[in-house]
Amino acid sequence: MLGFLYLVIAIFSGSAICQWIFPDMAEWAQKDFKGEKIKFCPLFLMIPAWIYTGIIPMTWLVYLFSYLLREIDHGMLLANLMVMGVFLLGAVILYLARRARGKLTFLGMEKLSPTKGEIIFLVLIFYLCLRLFFTTFRISGGTLYVGLSVFSDFSPHLGMIRSFSGGTNFPTTYSHFAGEDIKYHFMFQFLVGNLEFLGMRLDLAFNIPSMLGMISTFLLLYAFATKLIHSRTAGYLAGFFFAFRSSFSVFRYLAERPQGQSVWSAFTTHSQFIGYTPNEDWGLWNLNVYCNQRHLAFTLGVLLFILILFTPHLYAMTKRMRLEWECVKEGEGRENQDSPEKEVSLEEEKDNAQIVRDMQIKRTEKSSGVKEIQITWIEKLKKEILPRAEFFFRRNLFAAEGWKFKEPGIAVFAGLMLGALSFWNGATTIAALLVLFIMATVSDHRLDFLVMAVITVGLAVLQSAAFIDGNAVSTSFYYGFIAEHRNVFGVLDYIFRLTGFALFVTVAAFIVADGEKRIITVAFAAPFLFAFHLSLTTDVTVNHKYIMISLMLFGILEAYLILRLWKQKKFLVRFAAVGISVFLSITGIFEYLVVLNRNQKQNNLAFDTEDTVTAWIRDNATAKDIFLTSNYALNNVVLGGAMLYDGWQYFGWSAGYDTAYRDIQVKRMYEAESSQELEELVNENRIRYIIVDFDNRTSEDYEVREDVIASTYEVAYTQGEDEWKFTIYDTQKLVR
Predict the structure, then answer these.
(1) In the 8-state DSSP scheme, what is residue 714?
(2) How many C-beta atoms lie closer than 10 Å to residue 339's C-beta?
(3) Over the Cα atoms of the chain, what is R_g?
(4) Peptide linkage before 209 cis (omega within 30 of 0)
(5) Rounded distance between C-alpha atoms, residue 19 and residue 104, angstroms
């Protein structure tokens, strides 16, 4: 009950904060970025804003107070009650204060009500998210089912969640590399663990925030596309292309299907991720990513909300520049009219240009055409392009108007939100800064961007200093991402195979778009280019998130081009628009079916929620107790919240930990030949519990000396027999 109340208070508080910071949100939600009215349900923008504005700061405060009260019995419960009470009281006061001042305004219900299309869109994305998240993770009949496509990533996630729901992981350490700092973003896991701590069932605690975040992302993408393109249909298409990615993979798969197998059967029964680029068969690029990285799905909506807040500054600049340029041209025109000499010289120039053209025509038709084009472009360059470029740099980058504040309060709010995301999902924060940096260079009110960026970076640095020993990231030039051949042509080939029609359609949209959309397209490409040139971690594969963010944003431009084609009202052109939409989404639709097929109940990993090992660990161990185990991924020990000394190495290695050193230490401890040697190693590595089980006994990395362990420490828990015997030894209890 308290878990559900927590979410209700958070969202209610978010609505009060938004009413205070954005009192006219409902009104500007119904205008595009040019200020023109659009028929759009403001709630599709407002409710996601409430969710993020409430949940993120409230969860951070609960974490901070839980940390401060960690030495007090029931400190985490006390922290929750304090923060929930303060947020509820604060929200009520904000509403009452605005009502007393007559500033508590809402549009009429007819303006808040969604259209039929919006209702259908909401139902579809709700079903999509519900199906994805509860198919991959659910509890039924006392059994926890974890999907086959997500169990690997869920190993550290569930370990972290259970360490928080136990109420003791303060200061926070990584569940698969216990005893050191926390390099991995963990706040979404803390939110889930806190909800379970407050009494919410684990699958609900995991899936409900996941759904809130994913649905919010869809709604904000719809809002952003609608405001940018001035079309609700563009918003629907952008959401469709976000859900179902573009790639050539499905066409190759269908072409190579076994002879005799129908296309329908190949399309609907397949349960393996297809892929013809490195790691694509992991499900690295489709909806499965948002199933196993719930923290990414949750945070993308914040990026979109910040873009909605700052894109008007870009349109303000282009509007100002057009007006100023027109004034300049009008001034030049009046100056020319007042000067007869200039008129004559202009006529002479025209006559001379005509004479030159006539002489060229007399030579040969072919060469004349080329020369005429060259002169036309030279004249255009001299008389239009260069003056415009000079005017742009002078009146945009160096003009005072481009640097004035507009909404410093909103800039501070945006900085706090983006900065707070650093330990929810750092990639989203970095991607947002990359996109906004490009936008800022060609926008007015650049100080708003600067304030936002300074606060964001400041908070990120502060959090990194608090949680991480040493550098948070290690930036290095790494060209080519994970392309097989990391040269220009190899990378282009990789991108072509990976993205299919998406980039071609985006380039076409860029060509036919107006100036603002072209600038925005370049900004959208910033995370994509970043992913192919820099690496911040040991494993460059994690850069795939930046690429996915760019592709999500490119979907808006793809929708724009398709609408441009549809408006031609010609059968063949409209047929082409439909065909392009199919080619852009067919692989994603196929992979959605693969996710469902791969995670059918019979394929899931099943865990008894009443398992005695899990229960013993939750009842007897804390997050400060380090377990020496085999290199576990996901099992009942992890579900108990045990903090592993050296879990599955990929998780620790990719997060930046020295797993090679601990591999050596694990071998030394399990192979210790005397009690004295074992005790010294155990004390050195701060081990509280040692587990000996089937995995240890059959390990090829070491030969476990269970006789030494048993003669040194008392048994705290045991079950099973022979080589399947599972035993936990307590290193604080020596055998006498």
Answers:
(1) E
(2) 12
(3) 30
(4) no
(5) 8
Stated length of the chain: 736
Three-class SS of residue 24? coil
CB–CB of 209/461 below 8 Å?
A: no
pLDDT for position 334 = 56
d(CA 100, CA 97): 5
Pairing of strands 626-628, 687-692: parallel
Nearest CA-CA partner of 189 in 292, 323, 310, 75 = 292
- Ranges of H-type helices in 281-425: 288-292, 294-337, 340-363, 365-380, 386-392, 408-420
Cα 305 from Cα 56, distance rounded (Å): 14
pLDDT (tens digit per residue) in 611-634: 999 999 999 999 999 999 999 999
586 to each of 564, 593, 677, how far by Cα in Å? 21, 11, 60
Tell how many helices (H) and how many strands (E) occur in the chain.
32, 10
- Report residue 242 as tokens: 């976000």
Within 8 A by CB and 6+ apart from 361, the residues are: 368
Angle 143-144-150 (CA atoms, 0-180°, nearest 5)?
Answer: 150
Read off the pLDDT of residues 571-626 as tens digits, 9 standing for 90 and up. Answer: 999 999 999 999 999 999 999 999 999 999 888 899 999 999 999 999 999 999 99
Residue type, 38: I
DSSP 528: H
Distance between CA atoms of 560 and 524, rounded to whole angstroms? Answer: 14
Contacts 24+ apart (CB under 8 A), 464-470: 464/422, 467/172, 467/181, 467/182, 467/183, 467/423, 468/181, 468/182, 468/183, 469/180, 469/181
Nearest to 687 by CA among 645, 659, 656: 645
- If DSSP states are collapsed to H, E and C, what string results for 123-170? HHHHHHHHHHHHHHEEEECCEEEECCCCHHHHHHHHHHHHHHHCCCCC
pLDDT at 423: 93
Specify the amino acid at residue 481. Answer: F
Closest to 169 (Cα-Cα) out of 618, 691, 727, 636? 618
Yes or no: say if 612 and 537 are a contact pair by the CB < 8 Å rule.
Answer: no
| Cα within 13 Å of Cα(601), Cβ side | 6
